[in-house]
Design brief:
binds zinc ion, globular, 39% helix, 15% strand, alpha+beta, 633 residues, eight-stranded mixed β-sheet
Length: 633
Amino acid sequence: MSADSALKGPEPAIVAANQAARSLLPFEDRRDLDDVGRGFLGTVDQREITDRDGRVVWSLDAYGFLDADCPDTVHPSLWRQSGLVARHGLYEVAEGVHQVRGFDLSNMTVVEGERGILVIDPLLSVETAAAALALYRSHRGDRPVTGVLYTHSHVDHFGGVKGVVTAEQVGAGLPVIAPQGFLAHAVSENVYAGTAMARRAAYMYGAALPKGTHGQLGAGLGQTTSTGTVSLIPPTVEITHTGHQLTVDGIRMTLQLTPDTEAPAELNVHLPDRAALCMAENATHTLHNLLTLRGAEVRDPRVWAKYLTEAIQLFGDHSDVAFASHHWPVWGRERVLTHLTEQRDLYAYLHDQTLRMINEGLTPLEIAERIQLPPALEQAWHTHGYYGSVSHNTKAIYQRYMGWFDGNPAHLWEHPPTEAATRYVDFMGGADEVLRRAHQSYADGDFRWVAQVVDHVLFADPGNTEARELQADALTQLGYGSENGTWRNFYLTGALELRHGLVGTPTVTASPDVVSALSLDQLFDSLAIRLDGPAGWDADITVRWNVHGTEPITWRLHNGVLTHVLGEGPAAAGPDLEVTLSEADLRAVLLGTLSATDLEHRTGVRATGDVGKLTELLGHLGTPDPYFAIVTP
Ligand SMILES: [Zn+2]
């Protein structure tokens, strides 16, 4: 990484804004500082966690710079949050309940049973999970894992499972517990829009940024994502209702299902014998995302708030500590209640007030600008937007209820970015004039406006180097002023790509374990999305797959659409090709690891008809672009 971006200093307006923010923040409330260190038992000497090839997948020293005072290049609230999140080690949460924190984006929780341990949420990577378990064992003895529980369907809560147990152990009866619908959601969220989400996730977590006071320093929820091996072992015990009581290895649990909150399949866990409450990712030390900036379906804040109310009712009187799979616990019955109540009020307030304003006729940008949290919520640290934000969450609520259109017909049929930009720049007197005035706005500290207006110059002429530099500078300042970790990463990554071209590192969308858990239905769907529609307009190809032991699947390319139906299909004429094969071979063809011609010659495969038609069909599939441009056309 070249040093120029890393050396870009803060402008006076950002220095002043960050200082002003400092005076408004509740720094006198130091309880989080005590809580984050409470129960610390130790950490590891080995500072880097590596994979089999020696590649570093997580570094415990990467964020050592956060021990210093907050520099002017960072919002003081984000600096504080990152300093807390970066702490790492093994911590006792309650008697027999420990957490390994700071070894990945998420926490691993270990509950001690009669014979061994239950692992709740085994991190994102096999390597970090194994390191976390080793740290636990170095302090608590070599206890065997007797059960695993996934609180929800996000990869940072299951991807490391093979670092703590093997598929053989699970096959031999070791329970893997998860909420209803876990597997389908675990594999589906990143399938259909996976490439675009991965590209944007690289922006969101600042994967390509140097770590430091002028670069990436956290993501608010955790520091960043580990980059090791993602695994998946499907659950063997599905929780289907709230109030479900379960005992594993002598550990009694009461489960609360919370579908469609932070994840489509999620649950909270109460441990009555420890008076401890695991809130999964439903109540953490941040305002969470209703719509993550990488892209996702909008979450439901109304339901989220209702489940938090239910958690208070079910467990509030029986919980001396509440912890989550991110951040640090809250101790004391009163504080647990306050924490859950404030988190509940936060999501309920955003939901209700956004809708109130929608019904007053306000549009997303107006609502995001006008809405303000009540002072009581503003003065709590954990309600601040380090991961989600009030601004983008209110836009998400608008999207959930109203969609993309704000009702103004002037916005019904706008020109796309480049066509609009060309006209804007022309109307505004040409690129030189726009940049002259934008430099003035920059000097005035109006970086939001610079970003908005210079964007037009860039989309009209991405080769304009003066525009690139000015835009990169403006985005850098906006990053320095962001309380939200993901906003900072987005701004600074945009600046980095304007200065150096496309450098964002796409994260791996689907590991072999995750891909093998896809249903055939999902695989066919994901191929249909890759079809180059116009190229396939005139083709009409039907392939029938006879998979051993199941109904035939009829696959047809027609009208530029690739459909699959169970059964013979409606086609009057017979298929162009009929193939009898194993499911493994079908999956290999769909995943592109086995070509049509190789398929024909495999033992156990019987093909009747024209194999060339399958080759033709597969030839109409495009490959998604993991490096598409974002800050330029
Ligand atoms: Zn998570």
